Amino acid sequence: MKTLKLLAILFIVPFLVTNCSDDDDMTPINTPTPTATTIVDLAIDTPELSSLVAALQQADGDLTTVLSGDGPFTVLAPTNAAFATFLSANGFASLDEVPTDILSKILLNHVISGNVMSTDLVALGEGYTSTSTNGAGGMPMSLYFNTSNGVMFNGISSVEQADIEASNGTIHIVDAVIGLPNLVDHALANPNFTNLVGALSAADGDLVDVVGNNGPFTILAPGNNAFGTFLTDNGFASLDEVPTDILAQVLLNHVLSGSISSSNLVEAGAGYTTTSATAAPDGNALSLYFNTSDGVSFNGVSNVATPDIVATNGIIHVVDGVIGLPTVVDFALADPNFTTLVSALTRDDLTFDYVGALSTPNGTAPAPFTVFAPTNDAFASLLDELGISGLNDISEPVLKATLDHHAVAQANVLSSDLMDGMTIPTLGGNITAQLEGGAALVDANGRICHIIAVDVQASNGVIHVLDKVVLPPL
């Protein structure tokens, strides 16, 4: 590697000779202020960075002025050879052919706010920082660094010469231009995603191309350990044993449409969104439950370990568990609004295994199911209505009959399928849909139970949320 010699700047302070007048007046001595050597100055004085200087001068945004400012900045400075390789790889004969707006984005992808020395990076080992260009959702683009073998950025650009100090920051000379990363580029760069990349490559649907060249998407990316646990829990020795159609649906269950940051999720608090998986009755998209009361979790089984890795076409959140294809039971267990319902479904004296039955996979009778799920508040209101203190005060026959009135077998009834006056044949008997004044169910006692959330789509059925418990004939 060519050794970069940085020349010191000499300041010459001349002696000012003055003549004394009869009254001993003296001419003031003016001492010049030393000129600071900025990042741009150092680049100009370094022959192997002449292409970088030319690029800074051509790009939109007056980057030479920006990088001559106060900063501090950390600049990953590609060599002339790095620029030549970049131009050739992208079909450009010269820098003049690169659109100036794109060139500006690429250059700013080499600029980190703050003064980051190589020792800082080595102390961290590996991780993500942000650059000065914007990615999906207008968020700062993420940059992955790894110091296990030198200092490397995004898996493609290594530091050749580190810690060249300027008055307004630091330069690290690197051996490759760091392009604008898409979601797949980030996955390829991080060794913790080797299983994810392998799964995307093996699954049906050419998911590498889908995720890499479309979007924007939000990817919930399981790390290698998460995939290892998933394989063990499901009796697979390796990814090769997972049927490729099922693998594709599991992976798509981690893909959300749009750029959703962790702050967007925290602001929402908790709720349901939709994934790109269609492993549901009638090919409907699966729902995904998120909750931010203690970190950010999905379907109650997977937690965000590293949020907001920003790419050109979306955002990655690293998660600690693979999110399987959820059943209606999985959603009931995940959502704390249904803890009383789960307690009712699992009461020891029940003569029917609701959890087992409602976990039946789609395509096997009695699935699919339509479940009308009362909230905790709905059960609390029921106890008040009946004048009792707890679920244990309800006899097993009455509790079973009540629960039966909340499930329909062999039907995935969406909210759009409901009609005013429609008879709904539950496991316990008929109830009636009422749409006037808002969607509701009318039980055999004439009680009105409003539907307050609809179409929580599971792999084996759909859930609609109720504000009141449906009762059997009393």
% residues in beta strands: 25-35%
Low-confidence stretches: 1-34
Return the average pLDDT rounded to an integer. Answer: 93
Write out the strand line-up for the largest beta sheet, numbering strands in chain order.
2-1-7-6-5-4-3
Note the gap between the termini: 88 Å
Summarize the structure.
Helix content is 28%, strand content 25%. The protein has 17 helices and 21 strands.
Description:
This protein is an alpha+beta fold and 474 residues long. The protein has 17 helices and 21 strands. The strands form three sheets. It has a seven-stranded mixed beta sheet. A hairpin with a 5-residue loop joins strand 4 (140-146) and strand 5. The longest helix is centred in the last third of the chain and has 11 residues, at 376-386. The radius of gyration is 32 Å and the shape is elongated. The model is unreliable at 1-34 (pLDDT under 50).
Which helices and strands occur, and which strands form pairs?
Elements: H1 39-44, H2 50-58, H3 63-66, E1 73-78, H4 80-89, H5 100-108, E2 111-113, H6 118-124, E3 126-134, E4 140-146, E5 152-153, E6 157-166, E7 169-174, H7 183-189, H8 194-202, H9 207-213, E8 217-222, H10 224-233, H11 244-252, E9 255-257, H12 262-268, E10 270-274, E11 287-291, E12 297-298, E13 302-311, E14 314-319, H13 328-334, H14 339-345, H15 354-358, E15 369-374, H16 376-386, H17 396-404, E16 407-409, E17 423-426, E18 429-434, E19 440-442, E20 448-458, E21 461-466
Parallel strand pairs: 1-7, 8-14, 15-21
Antiparallel strand pairs: 1-2, 3-4, 4-5, 5-6, 6-7, 8-9, 10-11, 11-12, 12-13, 13-14, 15-16, 17-18, 18-19, 19-20, 20-21
